[in-house]
Amino acid sequence: MPPTLxxxxxxWSRLARTTTLRSIQLSNTRRISTSPFxxxxxxxxxxxxxxxxxxTSLDQQIPKPPxxxxxxxxxxxLGKCIIFGCSPSQIRDASVILKAVATEWRELLAGxxxxxxxxxxxxxGREVVWGEMDSFGHVNNVNYYRYAESARVNWITNFxxxxxxxxxxxxxxxxxxxxxxxxxxxxxxxxxxxMVYPDRISVYHRLSTPPQHGQTSFHLDCIVLSHQHRRxxxxxxxxxxxxxxxxxxxxAMPEFMxxxxxxxxxxxxxxxxxxxxRIWELIGGVEKLERETWDREDAKEDMGSAA
Length: 307
What we know:
Layout: H1 10-17, E1 24-27, H2 57-61, H3 70-84, H4 88-111, E2 123-128, H5 142-163, H6 168-173, E3 180-191, E4 199-207, E5 217-226, E6 231-244, E7 249-250, H7 255-292
Parallel strand pairs: 1-3
Antiparallel strand pairs: 2-4, 3-6, 4-5, 5-6, 6-7
């Protein structure tokens, strides 16, 4: 049988315990838009309840997604320029781009998909421990749910402590079975590659659909980034129900949550725009160097001299 679902505190898990383990759906695909113009950042899974798509002015400003392998492609392309022969100023330009890729990759990779990083919004740089691997020699699948669990707790707690301290008590009570709380309804994970020790991970959440008045649940996407490979090791989709323990039933999203989720949705859109523009700026820098070196009409490779 599949392993038991690891959920966060009691209030997130009560409803999940009444469901079957079929709520974990494992698949090997992820739908990522490759259209040249991104009119919407809404990522719906088939399990999500479809809501009307709201296209805002920010949606229309979002640049197209960068190439999937830009993190590995850019250093390789710069290497070709350097091997061909670069002037001192071109070497400096290449070093600036390489430094940006090396230091900004996590924020850009996550941000280009609308994930907010930094602060206490998720899990940053957590070490993968040897004991998390199984007999197959890779991190056991159940650990990805635990990674998402820790990041989800931090994501909610961040609202309470740093974003909306005026409603700190209300945010804190969402994690307890007292009044209005949050219950995990379903959790799905798409595994991208088998991660192994040693490695470090960063884990972030985003709202997958814009918040609306009267909704009784919300959907989150979660990304688990491998530092060793500088790519996503897994994507998770989470369906969270807003539950009133006093009435023993679902309830509409409280106003304090709706207000902050609306702001978060806008921040996600702004971060997508910023990160994608930055990535395309780096790509443009590499293309410029290519045109100035091996890809120019009169290009001749510098083979060095024995003299």
